[in-house]
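For practice. Any example?
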Amino acid sequence: MNRIDKKPLADLGYGFVTANYLQKDSNEYLYRNKNITQADYRQLSAREISIMEANLNEAENWKDIWVKDGFNPYLVKNCRFFGLIRIGILESCYLEFKNLRMPVGLYNSTIISSDFGDNVAIDRVNLLSHFQIGNEVMILQVNELATTPTAKFGNGIVKDGEEERIRIWLELGNENGGRKVIPFIGMRPADAYLWTQDRDDKALQEGYFNLTQQEFSTHRGYYGQIGDRTVIKNTGIIKDVNMGSDTYIKGANKLKNLTIISYPHASTQIGEGCEIVNGIIHEGCRIFYGVKAVRFILAAHSQLKYGARLINSFLGSNSTISCCEVLNALIFPAHEQHHNNSFLCAAMIQGQSNMAAGATLGSNHNSRGADGELQAGRGFWPGLSVALKHNSKFAAFNLISKGNYPAEIHNPIPFSLLGNDDESGGLLIIAGYWFQYNMYAIARNAWKFAARDQRVEKNMLLEFDYLAPDTVSEMLKARDLFCQWVGDALEKDSQAGKAWLENPTNAQNNLAVWATGIENSKRKTRVAKIHRAYQIFGDLLQYHAAKEWVATCQRNPNQKPIELLNKTLANATAIQTWDNLGGQLIPSGAVADMKNKIKSGNIKAWSEVHEFYEKQAVLYPDQKFENALNGLLKVNPNAIENIPAWLNKAVETSRFLTEGIEKSRAKDYQDPFRLAMFGNAQELEAVIGDLDDNEFIQQSKVNQQVFEEKIKSLA
């Protein structure tokens, strides 16, 4: 049993930085109350002390209680005060938030070395220690609200006199900690991604560590912060927590070592039964109903709900996790996982993703230790009851059908559906699946993610379009692989495969094509619809280039389209490889240059890395057009010599995509099994809506017509 030391009550305030410290320029707090100076306060008068004592208040030393003019001693009842206390204006009024009404004042609480803004309402706080509380804050029924001398507020800091072993790390992407990073306030998914990579580059890894060390002071004794208009009620323990303005906490069990960022226009809320430890929660987040989160970062406007467990993970913005378990994961923005029995472990998911019920990703390790990984590009959708092995890697927009996959998979083909092939007993890839069978879903999701981006501060340029530099590179690689695999099937070389794929008479040919290097097993991998996918990928690359030309002309209305085209062609010398940094696509060469600057010490703070993202965001539209033109010339080397033919193909593809959106959605109205749920077609339309009234489909048609008109202006 630990010995309990006796110490003088006066020592309770020892070692803490007082409110005056906040006047210094420090990165320690994102949120500060109005600067507090001693001149704003005065000591209590003898009459005020007598009123306070008559109201059953006690103080270790009444001289340590300072108040503003406008303080009403009648509004402080049955409280005990220790250490230096500052109290703002208290007026005879009440505060109201939703159904909670509280009279202004301090009631039935034990308060140690804390500062209060104007018109606060504090009642039944068993211990309130070392906090600076803003204006119009409501706190009701809290067991413990305290800040310790070594408070870190969720950051991976080691304070003076502490051992390195107590530092908080996030073990992202790998259970054995081989890709761990140090969390800090304002950390973006791109920062975490960069740090988890290049683990063999010791100089770069040391650079990331040094950047993080520069972010915060190692001094002890910072007060916790509670921003203006924050409401806290019926909560157990809040220890070492900073929270911004308009935070709302109700019924939480335990909140410890956290920063909760919140703004009036993007408030953060934490609800019943939550136990949240060692984390950073950015603005606009919602955490409710029995959530357990330990060692984590939530980016802006993300949600944890209904018993979700998030451990050693980074969740990108505009994401939702509920009812399930996520461990050691780095997840980029726009991720959905809301089924009770899904499991995600040791994974890097690059956003725009959705995990169905029963999906277990990462529960199966194929090595002797828990060091396997899973990596997936944008638009990763594992279906119902999918079980995948470590190590597996997937290109962008891979859909995986229900089933157990017994071996590791590395699928470089984007926009494909993977499943177990009952006919051959092996793996099946339907290449170009989305554009042939479910165009509505992929187009609507690109629109949906952009429309639902709630970020107030859009500090990363997130790419939501399914046609972008990452998928351009993957489609080009896929076409080369198609040529190789078809050549193998013909028992000839890849040139023979290319000739077969480019011959339109082979469209209906049922040539059996087998892929190599996809699955780590003796099973065969069959590629279906390969001829159609080859054609679609080529058409998409031509359409994408025309679309980006239109966009470039819109950005530069005073320049002639042909001049913009020729100018871009002059700079388009080679296909660029791109990195997906937390949802923002950046040329790999630019990223490499930035890394070298970190190693050399030319970049000295994470804020400079963030400036790099912002500068790249400005360059991105022109670079995207350049990349699109490179893709065009790969599939149609004569496009520039015959611009009308290229643009006609782009218009044809645009019509194909728009028609595909409507046709794939129309299947839901024509399915006899779905119609069986209703008495007639009219009832079906009453329940799921009229196809002709579908807003997204109608807008797609308008966009297609606008695109055609703009294409005519280019010719």
Remarks:
- The longest helix spans residues 606-635.
